[in-house]
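FAQ

Q: What does a record look like?
A: Structure on top, sequence underneath. For example:
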């Protein structure tokens, strides 16, 4: 059964303007809007990269029936790369469940899917999970919100569980 993730053929701002959709909006030309969009993306990237906590963007992988069966790492800040003992090249594009298969058994994966399907933010304090990457149980405060057909996800280790 083929799997798919994402629905955009080319999500770049340049593709949007090449399509003719952004020829002129109000008093701004397509070139001005493109420059504004590039600046906003640069600001967002700088903000994510400056975060001390890990942050990732996950894109849903759906089966032919439309059910979420996995997520793909679409982006990650440097803190997330380090936390996951990875490189950007290895993490981006990787399947979430290939790295952390225990998410299904623990029920954590189901909460991610619920957030994507309902749009209800995910907020968990002292979420406990055996992390296969670390080879140990981790206690984390977790926040995730739906973005498109995926999640913006951040977490923070809680040393030794709750105080």
């Amino acid at each position: 059964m083929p799997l798919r993730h994402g629905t955009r053929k080319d999500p770049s701002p340049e593709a949007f303007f090449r399509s003719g959709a952004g020829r002129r909006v109000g008093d701004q030309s397509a070139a001005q809007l493109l420059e504004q969009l590039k600046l906003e993306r640069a600001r967002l990237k700088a903000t994510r990269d400056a975060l001390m906590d890990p942050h990732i963007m996950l894109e849903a992988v759906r089966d032919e029936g439309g059910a979420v069966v996995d997520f793909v790492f679409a982006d990650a800040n440097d803190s997330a790369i380090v936390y996951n003992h990875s490189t950007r090249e290895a993490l981006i594009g990787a399947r979430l469940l290939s790295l952390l298969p225990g998410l299904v058994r623990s029920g954590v994966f189901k909460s991610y899917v619920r957030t994507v399907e309902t749009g209800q933010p995910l907020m968990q304090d002292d979420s406990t999970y055996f992390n296969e990457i670390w080879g140990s149980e981790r206690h984390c405060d977790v926040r995730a919100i739906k973005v498109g057909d995926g999640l913006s996800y951040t977490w923070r280790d809680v040393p030794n569980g709750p105080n």
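Q: Is there anything notable about this one?
A: The first strand starts at residue 4 and ends at 5.
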